[in-house]
């Protein structure tokens, strides 16, 4: 049952009306061309979620399904299956019940394997079907004590040839383990930071930096050299900044890209590695966190044949993902989409993608000017950084192209005066922009340990600003005494943080005639914002409060990223 072939998936998904024939054929073609699992392509294209596919396969074969990423796993039972067996056979021991041990595996119909498991566990096995992707994400539990493994490998460095590139080299194992651990922990960045005495490894998970492990500087220097070799950087250069990139393959074959930045500091070379998916995982607006009402506004904007849509927010606020989600809607054979990015974070079939290269003087402005001559219907500019790029982008939007781009502004309304500051004529701004999306990312409450509570107006974030309690009560539609909020208690699934994953909070400013008049008269961002709110715009703070009342995030998270 582990091998699920295309014909089986076609019967399961197309015959039952879950996918169209064209959607399935396109995914199958991509999987064949890239020599990848059809299941992976289907989930990454957003056609079906991994857990939904797993549940369908389980039900179709008469088995219970285990979404192992959300399971409360009993460590005492879990570690009874050795790591090498769990990895090769794709199985996990979950918990002990009165009638046996619950085991998740990709072959719940393998009688011989179940027999061996029963001998190993000295108990009857209750088999559950789980997807290979889900099991692989939980296998990192075997490396839960990162510090212990790190120290053991570091000690094994003595009396070994550290220049050896084999898998048995402790330095190779250390770097591989950091990358694998970071991937399964869903870290966006891995920081390696030297100090005078030791060096630290920190992971940025859901926007927050966490200390993971520290090490001797002697070990750190070998790790830096190994990463430089992987990224094709100069190992003999220690005084200049260097940038590189490489692709890393996980034990089960899945791959991801790593963008490497090396910067010299007083204490040695500092490294930051950004982890990037090889393939863009298609998501819809609901996955981003947009309400149905807000999603309709975006769809109206992208339906325009020309004009401009801007996404604003600081670095790491999810702007690129929002742009790619819009491109996903527009990506059709009859539409030519061209992008200029720094860097190209995801390669998408059907798009002409250009990467900024300062060494060859290929800037955003020069790349954009060249793209206009490539007969595009849609142009995506990774970021408007200067007056020249802004001017070309606006002119492109005026001359029959739909232009998508980003700006660094605090909110939607501030974007309009910012463009005027970049010497764009107000009448051009008023006539080209259809929609401005401002956004931030907040951490989501862990569904495994979510709990409700009654907030105290005299404690925590409510004590610092009495207006907040009024605002929350207003959106809840009840008095503050009757408001219920949510938080994560902390559990093994979320690493005791109370959070897993992130979601966006948004404000969408649609261009209207009153706002056009305000732009023409050089109105302030405050005047523009008040008019937009009067026309029905939901602010980021208000969107965040709605998500706290719905149990998606916490009030503390919303206030961390949105102004009151």
Automatic annotation (TrEMBL):
PROSITE patterns: T2SP_E (PS00662). Gene3D superfamilies: 3.30.450.90, P-loop containing nucleotide triphosphate hydrolases (3.40.50.300), Type II secretion system, protein E, N-terminal domain (3.30.300.160). InterPro entries: AAA+_ATPase, P-loop_NTPase, T2SS/T4SS_dom, T2SS_E_N_sf, T2SS_GspE_N. One of its GO terms (cellular component) is plasma membrane. SMART domains: AAA. Keywords: ATP-binding, Nucleotide-binding. Residues 372-386 form the Bacterial type II secretion system protein E domain. GO terms for molecular function: ATP binding; ATP hydrolysis activity. Belongs to the GSP E family. This is Bacterial type II secretion system protein E domain-containing protein. It comes from Candidatus Magasanikbacteria bacterium RIFCSPHIGHO2_02_FULL_47_14.
């Amino acid at each position: 049952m582990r091998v699920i072939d295309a014909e089986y998936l076609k019967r399961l998904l197309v015959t039952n009306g879950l996918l169209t024939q064209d959607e399935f054929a396109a995914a199958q073609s991509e999987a064949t061309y890239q020599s990848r699992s059809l299941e992976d392509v289907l989930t990454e294209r957003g056609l079906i979620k991994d857990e939904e596919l797993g549940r369908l396969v389980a039900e179709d074969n008469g088995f219970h399904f285990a979404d192992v990423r959300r399971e409360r796993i009993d460590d005492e039972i879990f570690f009874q299956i050795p790591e090498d067996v769990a990895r090769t056979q794709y199985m996990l021991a979950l918990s002990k019940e009165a009638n046996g041990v619950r085991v998740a595996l990709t072959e719940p119909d393998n009688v011989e394997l179940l027999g061996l498991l029963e001998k190993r566990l000295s108990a009857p096995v209750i088999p559950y079907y789980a997807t290979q992707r889900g099991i692989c994400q939980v296998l990192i539990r075997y490396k839960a004590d990162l510090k212990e493994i790190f120290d053991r490998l570091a000690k094994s460095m003595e009396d070994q040839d550290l220049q050896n590139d084999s898998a048995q080299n402790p330095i190779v194992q250390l770097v591989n383990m950091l990358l694998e651990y970071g991937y399964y922990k869903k870290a966006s960045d891995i920081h390696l930071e030297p100090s005078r005495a030791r060096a630290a490894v920190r992971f940025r998970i859901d926007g927050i930096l966490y200390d993971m492990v520290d090490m001797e500087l002697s070990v750190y220097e070998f790790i830096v050299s190994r990463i430089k070799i992987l990224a094709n950087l100069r190992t003999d250069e220690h005084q200049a900044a260097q940038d590189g990139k490489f692709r890393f393959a996980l034990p089960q074959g899945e791959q991801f890209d790593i963008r490497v930045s090396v910067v010299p500091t007083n204490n040695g070379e500092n490294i930051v590695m950004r982890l990037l998916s090889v393939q863009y995982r298609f998501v819809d607006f609901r996955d981003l966190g947009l309400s149905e009402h807000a999603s309709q506004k975006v769809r109206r904007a992208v339906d325009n044949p020309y004009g401009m849509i801007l996404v604003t927010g600081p670095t790491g606020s999810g702007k690129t993902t929002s742009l790619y989600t819009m491109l996903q809607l527009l990506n059709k054979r009859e539409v030519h989409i061209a992008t200029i990015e720094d860097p190209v974070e995801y390669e998408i079939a059907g798009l002409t993608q250009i990467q900024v290269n300062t060494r060859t003087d290929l800037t955003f402005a020069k790349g954009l000017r060249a793209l206009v001559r490539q007969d595009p219907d849609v142009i995506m500019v990774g970021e408007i950084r200067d007056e020249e790029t802004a001017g070309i982008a606006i002119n492109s939007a005026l001359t029959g192209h739909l232009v998508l781009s980003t700006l660094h502004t605090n909110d939607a309304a501030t974007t309009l005066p910012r463009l005027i500051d970049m010497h764009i004529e107000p009448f051009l701004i008023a006539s080209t922009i259809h929609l401005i999306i401002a956004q931030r990312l907040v951490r989501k409450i862990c569904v495994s340990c979510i709990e409700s509570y009654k907030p105290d107006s005299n404690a925590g974030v409510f004590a610092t600003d009495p207006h907040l309690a009024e605002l929350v009560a207003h959106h809840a539609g009840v008095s503050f005494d009757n408001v219920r909020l949510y938080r994560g208690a902390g559990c093994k699934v979320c690493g005791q943080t109370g959070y897993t994953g992130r979601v966006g909070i948004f404000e969408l400013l649609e261009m209207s005639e009153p706002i056009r008049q305000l732009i023409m008269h050089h109105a302030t961002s405050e005047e523009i914002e008040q008019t937009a709110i009067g026309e029905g715009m939901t602010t980021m703070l208000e969107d965040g409060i709605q998500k706290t009342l719905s149990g998606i995030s916490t009030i503390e998270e919303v206030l961390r990223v949105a102004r009151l």
